[in-house]
Specification:
This protein is of the alpha/beta class. The protein folds into two domains: 72 residues, Phosphotransferase system, lactose/cellobiose-type IIA subunit (Methane Monooxygenase Hydroxylase, Chain G, domain 1, Up-down Bundle), CATH 1.20.58.80; 165 residues, 2-Layer Sandwich (Endonuclease, Chain A). The chain contains eight helices and seven strands. The chain has a seven-stranded mixed beta sheet, with helices on both faces. The longest helix is centred in the first third of the chain and has 29 residues. The radius of gyration is 20 Å and the shape is elongated.
Length: 243
């Protein structure tokens, strides 16, 4: 079995299981391979082979676009099921307390996080805490896609910290891909259909003062917060793509 066939089998397996984030990535990689291979001399000289490549490319483009459309439709869901309002200086607002109801259970296999800012050490501390919480609550989680914006001050340090985060998740058998793009509003999307919009993203905690309890001992539950609004909507599940 060559590399392309292996990718196709993996993509179809993920697709059939409703793991659309990973399937979309695999279809994208397959298309890259097929486009590259279709331009080699042996294929260009063989009309039948070239036509076969074109048909496969069209098929994977259509499937990739269908998945992308389904994910966008879920992401835009306005079927709001809960609002959470955090007042300035509120405590007892750890990720587990406020999001645990929606991010839990063996049904969660994939997660998309769109975060406007991941630059400072405190940004990454909060991201680490969030992913630790997700790993505890979602034992079957296998794939995370993180979309954020490139640092305007120190991209090298940002890349190093993102890679450290990716490696930590990999040790838990969770693959994470990182994409840089403009992020208008922070958002969490999971394959069960929940869409969580947080106006401050993961960073609604106030800086800890030097006299506060250890974060390692108590997480962020005892940290004072900035005023934040969290909206939870419920859209279609990833598996609903087959309906």
């Amino acid at each position: 079995m060559n590399k392309t066939e292996e990718l196709v089998n993996m993509a179809i397996k993920c697709d059939n299981a409703g793991r659309l984030l990973e399937a979309h990535l695999l279809y994208t990689n397959i298309l890259g391979k097929l486009l590259q291979d279709s331009n080699c001399d042996a294929v260009l000289k063989d009309k039948e082979m070239h036509q076969s490549f074109a048909q496969h490319i069209q098929s994977y483009v259509q499937r990739s676009e269908h998945i992308e459309k389904h994910l966008k439709e879920i992401s835009r869901s306005r079927n709001v099921v809960d609002y959470i309002f955090i007042e300035n200086d509120d405590t007892n607002c750890g990720y587990e307390t406020i999001l645990g109801k929606y991010l839990k259970g063996d049904k969660i296999k994939e997660l998309l996080l769109e975060e406007t800012r991941l630059e400072s050490d405190s940004d990454f501390e909060e991201a680490h805490d969030f992913f630790e919480f997700v790993c505890r609550r979602c034992k079957k989680l296998k794939f995370i896609k993180l979309i954020t914006q490139k640092s305007k001050t120190n991209t090298e340090k940002q890349f190093e910290q993102l890679e450290q985060l990716r490696e930590e998740l990999s040790r838990k058998d969770i693959d994470m891909i990182i994409s840089f793009n403009d992020v208008v509003g922070a958002k969490i999307l999971v394959n069960t259909g929940y869409v969580i919009r947080i106006d401050r993203g993961l960073h609604f905690y106030q800086p800890a003062n030097k006299h506060s309890s250890s974060k390692k001992a108590h997480g962020y539950s005892n940290r004072k917060c900035n005023a934040t609004c969290i909206e939870i909507a419920l859209g279609a599940t990833f598996m609903d793509i087959y309906d």
